[in-house]
Amino acid sequence: MSESIRTPDREVLLEQRGGHVAIVTLNRPAARNAINGALARALEAAVRATEAKEAIWAVVLTGAGGKAFSAGADLKEVARGNLESLSTADGGFAGFVHAKRTKPWIAAVEGLALAGGCELALACDLIVAAEGAAFGLPEVSRGLAAAAGGLYRLPRALPRRIALDLILTGERLSAERAAELGMVSRLAPPGRALEVALERAAAIALNAPIAVRESLAIARASFDLDDTALRRLSDAAQRRLQTTADFHEGAVAFVEKRPPRWTGR
Questions:
Q1: What per-residue confidence (pLDDT) applies to 64?
Q2: pTM attached to this predicted model
Q3: 214 is catalytic
């Protein structure tokens, strides 16, 4: 099925594919998918829609047009004094970077992911980037700070001094180098980032969805909590999983030598 978030100019498109995967597309290609207020509200709506749909187990975030994943904040809006409109109360910048999301999100990056666009990618759980793509946080060159998560997520994704070099100079990092350093999880041929991201989403969706979400929640917290707290969270997650039908199904399918039939319950 295919569904678009209802905004006047269709700034964000939401398409639900088979296999429990959804695609969310930033749809302002003429503006290099820069974030304005309408897009921020629409992306927040897309997050809520994917969270609410039980049949969606993994989400791919991409940009229309193939030239830019996103150039970040629409500087025309910033120049008009509308910076605050580019964020939402619950989701933060673009309605996304601080949004509560239980399901895995994969960024599919073609072309440039700069400033807030880079921060959108960093807010995803995995990044697939096409060869020739590039990332950067050039906010300092505009008198701004990468305050939508870039200043702390980039040093988690890269060796600290390389991240600091990028933050302080505003220079770009190629997708190829980002893959070498582990920030990009998969490198795709030009024009095929979405295809490869969908393959990764499909691979995730082969697994028990509740187990994926429980595992993801703990992995996301791994930078913020000590081992004792993380061990408690892991034990609690395992106890919850043991009460699910999918926990039983996984063991039975193994014994019966057949693929499991997950229900998400």
A1: 97
A2: 0.94
A3: no
The CATH number given to 2-205 is 3.90.226.10
Residue tagged active-site, from 11, 44, 110, 139: 139
Domain boundaries, the chain: 2-205, 209-255
- Catalytic annotation on 119? yes
pLDDT tens-digit map of 20-57? 999 999 999 999 999 999 999 999 999 999 999 999 99
Judge whether 15 counts as a catalytic residue.
Answer: no
pLDDT digits (tens, 9 = 90+) for 181-234: 999 999 999 999 999 999 999 999 999 999 999 999 999 999 999 999 999 999
Q: Which of 37, 92, 116, 150 is catalytic?
A: 116
- 148 is a catalytic site residue: no
- Return the SS3 of 56: coil
Q: How many residues does the chain have?
A: 265
Strand order in the sheet with 21-26: 2-4, 12-16, 21-26, 58-63, 105-109, 126-130, 186-188
Which of the residues 11, 119, 205, 208 is marked catalytic? 119
Which one from 49, 73, 94, 108 is the annotated catalytic residue? Answer: 73
Distance from C-alpha of 261 to C-alpha of 3, rounded to nearest angstrom: 26
Return the structure tokens found at 84.
Answer: 């605050």
Helices 160-169 and 150-157 pack at an angle, to 10 degrees, of 140
Question: Are 125 and 146 in contact, with CB atoms under 8 Å apart?
Answer: no
